[in-house]
């Protein structure tokens, strides 16, 4: 919706504004969790951990209100008049655009996996394996989320200038190169170095996440754009970010605590994403008004 409402030449920026919701949510979650994690352990386990989830109900209500009130984009209304609306868009997407669905899924692997490694898994790794204080890591996540609020639209704007693929590829290459240094920095147990590692990791994530909304939307025609982008985005989640913390934990156990195995895993996801982006077409100059298929 944001991409279709966006002005020509600024779709990356408009799409990235939606993506900013993730670091904002992470910022809020880290802040709330930091507050309630200061409770005595027995109180936190009894009721403290439930409060953040209950607060999420308020955000759910706000999201539903916005979605029900928002108007359809001019592009969709034009496509609706000229070609009609697909009765079963999911089936149409799978039949007509299977390649782009797979490419969108592949593009999510490094982005989704590294986000959960750098923001979720690092917490358990640093606290349980390295014996660091939980508030120290939460503060690093909080700082990184704040930086992402700026980095995500910045990369979205950059993708409007040079293209989606170069920015996305740059982010994936950075993740591959940073996979080992990230854990080396965390393992120093120096607070500032740990914070820098988390910030750098999530900036690399922002390089992919910033242009992602526009890139995925531009892969599909107006008739099936919402379904196509959603399918590619959501189907990858269980196989990329959804299982990333569990895979990382299992790899640590398998290698007797060797973080190198998680680094190799991150590099593997980056390779999948690089292949997907290289095979995908550049989309930032496409005229969406002419793509109703």
Largest sheet: none
Shape: globular
Counting copies of identical and different chains, the oligomeric state is single chain
Structural class: mainly alpha
CATH architecture call = Up-down Bundle
- Distance, first to last CA: 17 Å
* Order of helix and strand elements from N to C terminus: HHHHHHHHHHHHHH
Query: What fraction, in percent, of the residue positions are helical?
Result: over 70%
Report the C-alpha radius of gyration, rounded: 20 Å
Total helical segments: 14
What's the pLDDT, averaged over the residues? 84
- By DSSP, the count of extended strands is 0
Q: According to CATH, what is the class?
A: Mainly Alpha
Number of domains as seen in the coordinates: 1
At the fold tier of CATH, the topology name is Growth Hormone, Chain: A
Look at the structure and name the CATH superfamily: MFS general substrate transporter like domains
Which parts are unreliable, with pLDDT below 50 for 5 consecutive residues or more?
Answer: none
Write a structural description:
The chain has 293 residues and is an all-alpha fold. The protein has a single domain (2-38, 72-290), classed as MFS general substrate transporter like domains (Growth Hormone, Chain: A). Helices cover 79% and strands 0% of the residues. The protein has helices at 2-5, 11-19, 21-36, 41-48, 50-69, 74-82, 89-96, 98-129, 134-162, 164-186, 191-218, 225-239, 244-254, 260-279. Helix 8 (98-129) packs antiparallel against helix 9, helix 9 (134-162) runs parallel beside helix 11 and helix 11 (191-218) packs antiparallel against helix 12. The longest helix has 32 residues, at 98-129. 42% of the residues are buried. The mean pLDDT is 84.
